[in-house]
Design brief:
binds adenosine-5'-diphosphate, 12 strands
Length: 275
């Protein structure tokens, strides 16, 4: 592969569920160290696209390369051949994913959750992994909670453990799918802060989010999707402050209205508490 090959290259990706076409020719390049925020209305195909990148879904058309390797397939005489499951599994291990719902193992402590992948999947020695896991929990500000069970942690803390758990596999790429959408507003900031630090350290990240302040500040580029296609992309400040496409404009103004409404409700709830 040429030295200019980005870490992620998706070309003309098509994905359908039965007769429903969800992705209709998505192109996306993400360079190493780049942070890309993926925006778009509900149902536009953002989650599906992340799942295709992570090979949780098979695609019906197009190609996805991760670090120069064709994801899931081998190309021979112009034809694609599906790779063996174990090869696909090893490709997938290079990619960390954090979901909207913190999906920690409930019967394991924070540190056990973080150690699980490296010990069980990578079969690394427990002692080395434990030291690293503690370091990762420290990185996400939770060293003091290492022996807590998920039920003893707030949503924000659980999500930070989930990030540490993904990082324990030393991924080349991190995918975030609305990581703060299920959190109470007061817990959103601590998760975004961990993600901001990760971005500063040079992690390559694709982040699906509705947090426009985060996107404007942290993303190198924002990509707006609608109806299974990329409608508009570019510099975060330019796209968010001055969207060119009608659909981007409509989405952003709707988001702004929802945000203002949520803030208003929050203020009223606080006032009701004080009264
Ligand atoms: P977004 O994350 O942007 O909200 P999704 O990728 O979740 O969008 O969904 C895009 C479309 O694909 C939706 O219409 C959704 O109903 C459909 N879809 C997603 N997953 C499946 C599935 N497993 N089976 C059938 N339809 C699906
Ligand atoms: Mg989604």
């Amino acid at each position: 592969m040429s030295e200019t090959m980005p870490l992620v290259r998706a070309i003309n990706v098509y994905k359908s569920f039965g007769s429903v076409e969800v992705l209709k020719g998505i192109d996306l390049d993400v360079r190493s160290g780049e942070v890309v925020c993926l925006l778009g209305p509900s149902g536009s195909g953002k989650t599906t696209f992340l799942r295709c990148i992570n090979q949780l879904e098979e695609i019906q058309g197009g190609r996805i390369w991760i670090d120069g390797d064709l994801a899931g397939y081998k190309e021979k005489n112009g034809k694609l051949h599906r790779l063996h499951d174990n090869v696909i599994a090893s490709q997938r291990r290079e990619i960390g994913m954090v979901f909207q719902r913190f999906n920690l193992f409930p019967h394991m402590t924070a540190i056990e959750n973080v150690m699980e992948g490296p010990v069980k999947v990578q079969r690394r020695p427990k002692r080395d992994v434990e030291a690293e896991a503690l370091g990762l929990l420290e990185q996400v500000g939770l060293a003091d909670k290492c022996h807590a069970f998920p039920s003893q942690l707030s949503g924000g803390q659980q999500q930070r453990v989930a990030i540490a758990r993904a990082l324990a596999m030393k991924p080349k790429l991190m995918l975030f799918d609305e990581p703060t959408s299920a959190l109470d507003p007061e817990l959103v900031g601590e998760v975004l802060e961990v993600m901001r630090d990760l971005a500063k350290e040079g992690m390559t990240m694709i982040v699906v989010t509705h947090e426009m302040a985060f996107a404007r500040e942290v993303a190198d580029r924002v990509v707006f999707m609608d109806g299974g296609v990329v409608v508009e992309q570019g510099n975060p400040v330019e796209v968010i402050n001055n969207p060119q496409h009608r659909r981007t404009q409509a989405f952003l103004s709707r988001l702004r209205a929802e945000h203002e409404q949520a803030v208003q409700q929050h203020v009223e709830a606080e006032q009701a508490l004080e009264a």
